[in-house]
Amino acid sequence: MTTEELELLLVQQPIALLHRLARGRIQRHFRAGKRRLIEVLLRHSVENRAGFESDLLTLIGEQQARLVPPASQAPAARKPKPSAPQRRTTHRPVEPESHEPGVTLSSWLDGLGVPPPQTFVPDAWQEDAIAKLRESDVVVSVPTGSGKTYVAVEAARRAIAENRTVIYTSPLKALSNTKYTEFSKLFGPDQVGILTGDRRDNGQAPLLIMTTEILRNLLYDAGGGEIDVRLDTLGLVILDESQYIADPERGVVWEETIIFCPSQAKLLLLSASIGNPHDIAEWLTTIRPTPCHLIRHSTRTVPLRAGYLHPNGKLTPFFRTIGIPHGHPSHLHPEAKRLFAQYEDETLPSGRRR
Amino acid sequence: MPPSIHPVDLIIALREKHLTPAIVFLTSRRACDEAMQAFDHSHILLPPPRQQAIATVLEKVIAQYPSIAEHPLIPTVQRIGVAAHHAGHLPSWKIAVEELMRHGCLDAVFATTTLAAGVDFPARTVIITQSSIRKSRDFMDLTIGEVQQIAGRAGRRGKDLVGFAIVTPSPYIDLNVLTKGFTGHPEAINSQFVISYPMVLNLLKAHPLDQIQPILAKSFAQFQLNQRAEVLERKLDDLRDQMEPFGPRVCTDWITEWQTFDQVRRQKSHRAPVRRHEPPELAARFHFLTPGRVVGFGRSRGVVLRQYRSKGQKSPMITALRLGGGITESPASTVTEVSDRVLDCVDAPVYPWCTPESVEELLRHLEELPGRLPELPILIPKDNEPIPDAIVQTLGDFACPTCPSRSACQRDYPFASKLRQEQHRHVKSIQALRTSLWHRFQEKIDVLQQFGYLTPASRLTDDGEWARLIRIDHSLLITELLRADAFNGADPAMLAAVMSSIAHDDDRPGAFPRVSSGLGSLLGQVRKLAVSLSPHEDPPLLRADIAAVTERWIGDPTLTWIGLCKSTTMAEGDIYRLLARTLEFLSQLRTLKGTHPGLADSASRAIAALRRGVLEELP
Ligand SMILES: Nc1ncnc2c1ncn2[C@@H]1O[C@H](COP(=O)(O)OP(=O)(O)OP(=O)(O)O)[C@@H](O)[C@H]1O
Ligand SMILES: [Mg+2]
Q: String of b and e for A76-102 (b: at least 16 CB within 10 Å)?
């Protein structure tokens, strides 16, 4: 392809494809308009023209494959697009018929109990997160109770061993206090400090715990020229419960903290399950020196079951299946349905029934 | 039947099925407290060894936090193995309950959902009694993410093979919210970026004005705005393709040419257009109220199914599918918000104007939409403006009547001009998306310049240099108070009291001590200033009764915590939070040593006086 041909081909592509092509190649490509983007892409293509052209052709091919009716889904399915929220996928096992009776209470309760004691073996995703944190920022979005703290602790341990300062932030003072106690036990009290607005306990320790607001203020002070905490040796910043970035009142503080986080420090964002963790990761990739790694999964380590307890003390499964039927809100257990209808009948003032 | 299960019955049922320990999420603190009272005369006691285990853990916690030694809930906790945990409690009490849970000592904890994200204790079972949560004075349905965060506390790794989330109904519960929450994907989260005065000052301290825009562009807010701009750019690409056949003809800009010609021709023919007495905004909007468009009606929301004009008045009307499933016919003027969102909808020639599957689908999408949607920027055309006479007189000069392209232009004009309008609209929206943060930043700069914190060149003035250290809510009010020397001669108690009344944002009434007359008049002054600043910053509540609580605590060093709590109806957890927040505000004033030594000193003394008893227990 000559440069003119390449340019012509680029001009013919929709901007979305150009952005996809720019991903990982050009920083902040989102800010560029189409013409500018093509210019930058062309300039960039000089570095590895063959690779660039082949990526471009692949993308064009994928796009055409997507336009072909769904019968030939194979090539598109090979590369799942994370940005489209998965909705009612078709490859789920066939669901039971609606008139099929639900599980019995005893089979629903079956399996309840305490697991035999096991030696601690980190999960693959935990290992992965810790390993990736060597080279890049990491966003972890996994269900509640999965073991995000372990990732934070191990990453902190490594950074401390390398003589780097670690900052751990949580959204709430109460949570900071709990973690202060927990980490002091783990690392030894002299290794952990806590900072609040008016107090500073063991502020010289290598692992510092604070609320996100306090960290934001430290970063502003550093920006204004006042050096406070050893930001120059800062190696790791852990933002726990980072889904708070969507908090209407305080969310902006997480954004400020991330924007002003020194570039030599790695960022570790721990978050409960959210719908668009890839957006957060992609955002970090565009503004931080290294591409951000996303660790996500939605399977709970301890399986969850849902039940319904009637005010008269009768317990029944909530869904027809033992586990939670993801994607099928209508699969209520007939008994739960019946009892709840009865409840509404008896408690709603007449006329309010739906 | 009782409206909800009795707490004692609940615990009996859970114990019988081996579903303990459990966290019972209740709607209010009051419900938690009442649940605890229900055990006062109950006989479902724990076996003595378990009671002993609780006592041992409590002893340890009390050694660290003496304030909870006499806690009124201790007897029930110890006898029955249940506890309450909510924002009305002291942090030290909450730590004690969490510690008991971690040791597996309790069978159940009654907690409010507000705490679901903040507590650090899992259990085998979670009991859910509600489907909505109080958020800033309003009840809102739980989101999928929230339901999963609450339910997700069930099942402890290493201690449970399975976790159980059990719904037990109470009045006003909506089962659909919970089933959707259990089975759905958590919602995408959105940036909530706001530009505050301290942000502007601190950024301009560290960076010259011309570097600010790139910094704002690094925000998640801009990232998400760009994503939306990208969608529009894709639409623009499509439009450009569709415009292909309508490129230059005999004249380059034939669309404008034809438009003018056509308008003039109509005016000439004296056929006055049907004049409808509707405001141009309405006419402009009506154009966009097409099937599938998501619109707001005051506080509710709906999707347009069709648009039409009423039989008699010919006023613009729409049929809309509302949240909840109702289909309504309403004047287009009742639409308060036209969003930039169009849902897919398959038209049908008869009521409900789209296929039944479509209705289902629309309803589902409608429920899943985020709370706030981007509004559609609508240009209001000034098409009633008469064409200048000069042009009319030159009608003879139009080339159109004899142009070879005339019939093509006449045929294509309606479609082509619609496409072009759409193009203009998209270009405008994209521009707005790319620059809105910067405009908001500039608005704040304007105010700060007006007040003299920034120079006309947007550098920090002397006042700006210290004002940037005040990084709390109501920062403008606080810095303006300092510039007005409002705290000159105010003692530490008064200073702290005013800070409390600025910090406190809860308007729940209660009984409180009275303020001293000095504090009363100072608060009057603060209120006056706050009102005058209200165009630039929302005024705080400035409750005198709240200020009085702080004034008493600092003013009288012999006052005990219990004594303070007795002087008001506020829960002790709330008093604690009020004073903790005041500490935070005071500590920011303390950083102004260099420029306001007197004030900083007063703040330091207030902090020292405030931090005693319970307030000394935790960092
Ligand atoms: N690999 C593992 N094997 C067994 N248990 C583990 C493992 N990793 C973590 N745990 C245990 O899982 C429990 C929950 O962990 P943790 O508190 O870190 O969860 P989390 O993801 O932070 O949840 P939350 O969303 O509530 O903050 C802890 O008791 C922890 O010891
Ligand atoms: Mg955690």
A: eeeeeeeeeeeeeeeeeeeeeeeeeeb
Domain total of chain B:
4
Under a CB-based contact definition with an 8 Å cutoff, are residues B468 and A216 in contact? no
Residue of B115, B120, B153, B157 to mutate, ligand 1, most atoms within 8 A of C-beta? B157
**B87 shares a domain with B36:** yes
| Residues B356 and B422 reside in one and the same domain | no
Probe site for chain A from B202, B225, B237, B343 (most A CB atoms < 10 A): B202
Atom of ligand 1 nearest to the CA of A148: 21
| CA separation for the pair B601, B592 (Å, rounded) | 9
> Which of A231-235, A254-258, B262-266, B272-276 shows the lowest per-residue confidence on average (mean pLDDT)?
B272-276
Q: Residue A308: phi, psi to the nearest 5? A: -130, 130
Confidence of residue A19 (pLDDT cuts 50, 70, 90): confident
- Touching check for B386 and chain A: CB below 8 Å? no
The nearest CA of chain A is from the CA of B99 a distance in Å of: 10
Tell me: pLDDT of A254 over 60.
Answer: yes
The pLDDT of residue A233 is above 80: yes
Residues in a beta bridge with A239: A169, A269
Q: Could you tell me the CATH number of the domain that includes residue B502?
A: 1.10.3380.30
Supply the range of the domain harboring residue B355: 289-368
Average pLDDT over residues A162-191: 94
Is residue A95 predicted with pLDDT exceeding 50?
A: no
Cβ distance of A252 and B192 shorter than 8 Å: yes
pLDDT exceeds cutoff 70 at B273: no
Could you tell me the residue ranges of all domains in chain A? 3-67, 84-111+303-347, 124-296
Whether a cis peptide bond, with omega within 30° of 0, leads into B352 is: yes
Question: Is pLDDT above 70 for B48?
Answer: yes
Q: How many CB pairs under 8 A join A and B?
A: 281
* Domain identity same for B536 and B423: no
Q: Is the pLDDT of residue A134 over 50?
A: yes
- Please indicate, yes or no, whether residues B343 and B448 belong to a single structural domain of this protein: no
Which 576-615 residues of chain B touch chain A by CB within 8 A?
580, 583-584, 586-588, 590, 607, 611
pLDDT in tens, B286-338: 888 888 899 988 888 999 998 888 777 778 889 899 888 888 888 888 888 88
- Percent of chain B's residues with pLDDT above 70: 93
Distance CA B164, CA B24 (A): 12
Q: Which residues in A lie closer than 8 A to residue B175 (C-beta atoms)?
A: 332, 340
Nearest to B192 among A145, A198, A247 (CB): A247
Block residue for tokens 């292909």: B244
Contact call for A145 and B191, based on CB within 8 A: no
Residues 322-381 of B with CB under 8 A from A: none
- Asked if A199 reaches chain B (Cβ–Cβ under 8 Å), the answer is yes
C-alpha A127 to ligand 1 mean position (Å):
14
pLDDT-derived band at A322, boundaries 50, 70, 90: very high
Where b means 16+ CB within 10 Å and e means fewer, A238-275 reads bbbbbbbbbbeebbbbbbbbbbbbeeebbbbbbbbbbb
Instruction: Compute the nearest-CA separation of B262 from chain A (Å).
Output: 35
Average pLDDT over all residues of chain B: 89
Q: Which of B189, B205, B427 to mutate to test the interface with A (most CBs of A within 10 A)?
A: B189
Is the pLDDT higher at A94 or at B400? B400
- A124-296 belongs to which CATH class? alpha beta
Q: Looking at the domain assignment, is residue B414 inside a domain?
A: yes
Cβ A108 vs Cβ A317: under 8 Å: yes
Q: Which helix (H) or strand (E) holds A211?
A: strand A207-211
Residue in chain A lying closest to B223 (CA): A283
